[in-house]
Amino acid sequence: MGLRVLHHLPAGLLQTEATGLLRKLGGPTLIELAGRREPALFVSVLQHGNETTGWDALRRVLLKHQGQPLPRRLQILIGNVEAAARGLRKLEQQPDFNRCWPGGTLPPEQADHPFCHITRQVIRRVAEVPPFASIDLHNNTGLNPHYGALNRLNTQALHLATLFSRIVVYFETPTGVQSMAMAEYCPALTLECGQVGERAALDHAERFIEACLHMDHLPDKPVAAHDIDLFHTRAIIRVAPELSFSFDGSPADIRFVSRLDHLNFRELPAGTLFAELSSTHPAPLQARDEHGADISAQVFIREGHALRLRRPYMPAMLTLDHRIVRQDCLCYFMERLKPERLPPGCVAPAAHAAVEAQGRQPETIG
Asked: Which of 81, 83, 85, 183 is such that its CA lies 20 to 30 A from the CA of 52?
């Protein structure tokens, strides 16, 4: 498997659902289309095969411009079409496509996977003429607002992010992701577009792609304080692989609180109940910081059978999908980014005033 590069849209491509792209394209494909402005807008979709909003939104945009020049040159990376054909995030034998970009650390048995060669090819091509901006479109399985995520705290990247949402997440892990690799060359943003099938998510993604194509430039002036809520991912949370878990109160080693995904993007106080435990495992939920250090004891506290937060956090991407929990993670924990972490003149400190908690948190299990 290698990267296919096309300079046209194959006949019928824009009428093809994500599940049919493997038959149309044969594998990951970079499509480069001319436009009135240079350099290109880089758009990646379907790095996770079951996250289809990006492809559907992009199809809408391209159909709208059929028969006329695009406002800006466009580079489109269509990613894991094998997984898309089966409606899966990835196939069992595959690494996560969005962990295969330069700078990542995959297990040795996956480090030479064709996906890694493909992403290196893309980066070499991009480096010749750096894009105007890069956007990578995703969905998530839990209840989350639409938000942008980035890896570089600079003015242009923040302006790009706030064009999509006032909620912006800065993250340093996981590594090997598209936005981190592309940030070496241009403002780069990951778009989290809610759940697959949401009409509002599709409309929002379409409007954003269209806006980026028509944009003349990204401002250099600081982002207005009232336009952004900025958070920093502090920990990735995984379930110990040997333990069972449930979200509906059914018997398991870990029984999470009911409606767990409703806690996404809520600022939870210290002491918030997270799960009830039947296991004596010393670290049923494993928390690692952005450097990979185990910080489970700093994040959670066990009181009898109750597992609670030791300090305040805001979860993101909590999911009730067992497969996603095992393949990727349960969630990320974030904190509001402190002003001193920002480059001077990037955004006004007032943007970091505390916001009110978004409703009471449940204390029931199942």
From this structure: 183
pTM of this structure = 0.89
320 in Cβ contact with 260 (< 8 Å): yes
| Residue linked to tokens 């489970």 | 296
User: Whole-angstrom Cα distance, residue 91 to residue 48?
Assistant: 10
Side chain identity at 21, as an amino acid letter? L
pLDDT, residue 2, reads 86
Q: By C-alpha distance, which of 319, 71, 296 is closest to 196?
A: 319
Q: Which H, E and C letters describe 156-194, residue by residue?
A: HHHHHHHHHCCEEEECCCCCCCHHHHHCCCCCEEEEECC
DSSP class of residue 205 equals H
- Nearest in space to 125 (alpha carbons), one of 39, 49, 45, 187: 39
**Per-residue pLDDT tens for 305-342?**
999 999 999 999 999 999 999 989 999 999 998 766 78
Residues 6 or more apart in contact with residue 313 via CB below 8 angstroms: 234, 235, 267, 268, 299, 333, 334, 335
| DSSP notation for 212-258 | HHH------SPBPGGG-EEEEEEEEEEE-TTS-EESSS-SSSEEEBT
What are the residue ranges of helices labelled H in 113-165?
114-128, 155-164
| DSSP output for 259-316 | TGGGGTT--BPTT-EEEEE----S-SEEEE-TTS-B-HHHHEEEETTEEEESS-BEEE
